[in-house]
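Late entry, evening session. Most of the bench is empty. Finally got around to the prediction I had been postponing all week. Sequence below, unchanged from the version circulated by S.P.
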Amino acid sequence: MTLGHGEVMTRREARAAQTSGAPTGDSTPPRSPRERPRVSPIGVLGELFITAGVVVLLFIGWQQWFNDLVVGQQLHQEGIAQSQQWSAGTPDVAPAVEPSPDPPPVAARAGLTERFAWLIVPRFGDDYFRPIAEGTSTTTVLNRNNLGHYPDTTMPGEEGNFAIAAHRKAYGGNLEHIGELRAGDHIYVETPAGWYRYSFRNLEYVQPSGVGVLNAVPQTQLAADAQYITLTSCNPFFSTAERIIAYGVFDGWFPREGGAPDEIADTVRVG
């Protein structure tokens, strides 16, 4: 079949020409089908490792940051509820500006794993309100979002060393900011009777075997007839290579009937 000048081959004619082997006017050779890439077991394994790594990183981020944020907010609400329960039946008064001149009572000891007090540290933020439980077991105390009291150390209101431990990250990150404390910062311990106030003195870094920090008089050349608080945690982050220690000295007592200290009134929302 021959095309005259100006004529156009129809689709039907083109298909007929292709079937008969006649040229259609298109000299482009047909394309060969694209070959599919071969799948390598090593490549599949590599992709699986990459995916697993991303999942692990996301989990760590969730546990170490977002989860601490969520748990911290939850603990703050629990602390408010506990403080209000302890204050039930006491008259509403304005926040206290000065501590009581009376000596503080000695806080009652609790059973192992039992919460008996709450820690409040203004330097750590207005929403920092963390529970203290008896004992320092990782599984039954620290991993339950608590700070743990060393049973062989004294109690608030008692001469000697009230020592507690906590994680720096995860499970609330209760001592994440311990390294940010500055001389003179106040540390409060709330019990049913009221609030014990300590003034931060200094930081110290020790080996895990440095149990002298738990002595009745900590190993920092402090006076022998005073009341102390010692906060202990691991250092650096995500490591147990050493311990970071924060020492405070008792400097005031605020009985519950006199109102919460003005410095932490917004945190406990009492009075």
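Two things to note before I forget:
The chain has one domain: 64-268.
Strands lie at 115-120, 130-134, 147-149, 160-165, 186-191, 194-206, 227-235, 242-255.
Will write this up properly tomorrow.
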